[in-house]
Design brief:
GO terms for molecular function: pyridoxal phosphate binding; transaminase activity. The protein is α/β, with parallel strands linked by helices and 359 residues long. The chain starts with a strand and ends with a helix. It is globular and about 70 Å long. The protein has a 7-stranded mixed sheet with strand order 2-10-9-6-5-3-4, with helices on both faces. The protein folds into 2 domains: 10-238, Aspartate Aminotransferase, domain 2 (3-Layer(aba) Sandwich), CATH 3.40.640.10; 239-358, Aspartate Aminotransferase, domain 1, CATH 3.90.1150. It has helices at 12-25, 33-46, 59-67, 82-90, 109-112, 135-145, 196-205, 227-236, 240-258, 287-299, 324-332, 344-358; strands spanning 2-3, 50-54, 73-76, 94-97, 120-126, 148-152, 160-161, 164-165, 172-176, 189-193, 265-266, 273-274, 280-283, 302-303, 333-336. Bound molecules: pyridoxal-5'-phosphate. Residues 56-58, 80-81, 83-84, 126, 152, 154-155, 176, 178, 189 line the site of pyridoxal-5'-phosphate (PLP).
Length: 359
């Protein structure tokens, strides 16, 4: 069976050796050595000033909304995982959608301005599948209207834009280290900022607002990463370059074999991007064709996923207006299997089955 993704598991003995440190110190959460070491390694490797490891990739979005004081309306993309929108509603704000660019699949800055009202406090945009947003245009809008930008960079581990980690852009950037993501800690995530004062606010908020055992800086919640999660991260991290390299190889095999078809569209990766090949999305001419291809692949025990479907503006409790580009893309896009130990022969077989279904 081939699924859209497969979790990279390090050698169990490597994981156990890291866990032994927790057993030795009897310290399994509340920012022990393993969490601190994971943060240091990531910050050093990607040249990031401030990072806080968290227990998943959703809480950092909620904490960022709180820390930046966002209220009222937040403009966001209809083409993302549900968490990008649901955190806005969960924090008592209103998600206001702006449609996407049909080539990059990211929120279209030219659609954002039309949605800005006196109630708009910020933007939450996803770098979809690890492809950086039009960061310069977003910055301009944020400055002009004095609003904040949060990037949901859940897919972006290892991505660079203009020679810098993509986590360095926006007021706050967040990542997910969920088991399905390119780098993982089982469950886990992180938040990043370049601003020391904001970092401190985020830091307090992720640990109940504690400022020492008996004092509180302000309202907080619990988003701490445990030592057990960090141990997984530290066991996986040394393999990250290998993982990236392998994904690039397989990604290129897909492109080489599928680009010959004029019935398929691929995501346009932005210029100046060192891409991480976190996903391999392919877009069909219609939803009927997608269903056909998906059924053929399923018949061979191959299970691609409809990322992202449905378009978030159509989710009933989010009350979005119509977003024609996102809705059309959502119906026609399929993410093909892509993971470290996927075989090149399997990629070739998937490509053959797609060509056969299209003819
Ligand atoms: C995975 C994902 C999240 C949520 O991350 P968790 O670690 O599962 O909480 C948020 N946004 C996007 C775009 C994601 O893909």
């Amino acid at each position: 069976m081939i699924h859209v993704t497969k979790t990279f598991l390090p050698k169990q003995e490597d994981y156990n050796a890291l866990l032994k440190r927790s057993w030795d110190t009897q310290w399994i959460t509340n920012r022990g050595d393993l969490v601190k070491e994971l943060e240091s390694k990531i910050k050093e490797t990607f040249n990031i000033p401030y990072m806080i490891a968290t227990t998943n990739g959703t809480l950092p979005l909620q904490i960022a909304i709180k820390a930046l004081g966002l209220t009222g309306e937040i403009i966001t993309t209809p083409f993302s995982y549900i968490a990008t929108s649901s955190v806005i509603a969960w924090e008592g704000c209103k998600p206001v959608f702006a449609d996407i660019d049909p080539e990059t699949f990211n929120i279209d800055p030219s659609k954002i301005e039309a949605q800005i009202t006196a109630k708009t406090s910020g933007i939450i945009a996803t770098h979809v599948f690890g492809n950086p947003c039009d960061i310069e245009a977003m910055d301009k809008i944020a400055q002009k209207y004095n609003i904040k930008v949060i990037y949901d960079a859940a897919h972006c581990f290892g991505v660079e834009y203009k020679g810098k980690s993509v986590f360095n852009y926006g007021d706050v950037s967040t990542c997910s280290f969920h088991a399905t993501k390119i780098f993982h800690t089982g469950e886990g995530g992180a938040m990043f900022t370049k601003d020391l004062e904001l970092f401190e606010t985020l830091y307090y908020k992720h640990n109940f607002g504690h400022n020492g055992p008996e004092e509180f800086h302000g309202l907080g919640i619990n988003a701490k990463m445990s030592e057990l999660q960090a141990a997984m991260g530290l066991a996986v991290f040394p393999h990250f370059n290998e993982i990236l390299k392998r994904r690039h190889q397989l990604y290129n095999v897909y492109i080489e074999n599928l680009k010959v078809s004029d019935q398929l569209q691929f995501q346009k990766i932005r210029e100046y991007t060192a891409y991480n090949c976190a996903y391999f999305p392919v877009v069909f001419l219609s939803e009927d064709i997608l269903d056909l291809v998906k059924n053929v692949l399923n018949g061979e025990s191959i299970f691609p996923r409809r990322y992202f479907y449905p378009s978030l503006n159509t989710v009933s409790y989010l009350n979005g207006e119509s977003m024609p580009i996102s809705e059309s893309l959502s119906k026609r896009i399929l993410c093909l299997p892509l993971y470290f130990d996927l075989k090149e022969d399997d990629v070739l077989q998937i490509c053959r089955l797609i060509h056969k279904s299209l003819n």
